[in-house]
Amino acid sequence: MKFRLFLISILLLSVLVNAQEKLPYYEIPKMDQKYTAQNTVARMIDGLGFRYYWATKGLRPEDLAYQPKGEGRNCQATINHLYDLSNMMLRLTKTEVTQEIEKSKMTFSEMRKQTLLNIEAVSKKIKTSKNLGKFSVKNDGKISIPFFNVINGPIADAIWHTGQVASFRRSSGNPINPKVNHFSGTVRE
Predict the structure, then answer these.
(1) What is the mean pLDDT of each run of 10 residues along the chain (189 residues)?
(2) SS3 assignment for the chain
(3) How far apart are alpha carbons 39 and 166 in whole angstroms?
(4) What's the rounded Cα separation, in Å, for the pair 145 and 11?
(5) Of the candidates 111, 132, 138, 167, which lies 20 to 30 Å from 179 by C-alpha distance?
């Protein structure tokens, strides 16, 4: 009886661990071959998600603490900034995503997961929109921010900082999995 209970416990634990590890952007999702403004921007966002997934997968405490010489953020602070940028993208595209944990209480893993979910939600919102112009944001009713600023603002900034995380981890001795193909958005087995 104890052995059976032990086996059931191990099986449940295994299922739980595998369920928790299923995050978006292990690979870039298949894309409609119809080239539209929405699909193009969504593909940029999916590329960001894929790069972020692999830049942050398997980071160790020493990787998170790594900081290049001079002034600037360490790796963990850069990841915090990327989380903030993903939330900015949500706001600017009027995308609703539940943030289950307050930022100050998040572990690295929780922040990574939430950032990936945020990026995925923004991509889906963009893909299903009929007009990117509808995302122009009025700030205090006085200044209108065109969607182009979302692209060259938080989207481009997040791509930039994801590259920094990849560089930091390489410098701290933990390079990205060499089987990752950034060109195709796939992983060789």
Answers:
(1) 51 48 92 90 97 98 94 95 97 92 97 98 95 75 79 97 98 97 94
(2) CHHHHHHHHHHHHHHHHHHHHCCCCCCCCCCCCCCCHHHHHHHHHHHHHHHHHHHHCCCCHHHHHCCCCCCCCCHHHHHHHHHHHHHHHHHHCCCCCCCCCCHHHCCHHHHHHHHHHHHHHHHHHHHHCCCHHHHCEEECCCEEECHHHHHHHHHHHHHHHHHHHHHHHHHCCCCCCCCEECCCCEECC
(3) 26
(4) 51
(5) 111
Distance CA 87, CA 70 (A): 28
Which CATH architecture best describes the domain 2-187? Answer: Up-down Bundle (1.20)
Output phi, psi for 176, to 5 deg.
-60, 150
What are the structural domain ranges in the chain? 2-187
Q: Give the Cβ contact number of residue 103 at 10 Å.
A: 13
Q: How far is residue 177 from each of residues 101, 131, 169, 182, measured CA to CA in Å?
A: 29, 37, 11, 11
Contact 123, 42 (CB under 8 A): yes
Could you give the CA distance from residue 36 to residue 42 in angstroms, rounded to a whole number? 10
CB 143 within 8 A of CB 62: no
Q: From residue 27, how far is each of 30, 162, 163 by CA, in Å?
A: 9, 16, 17
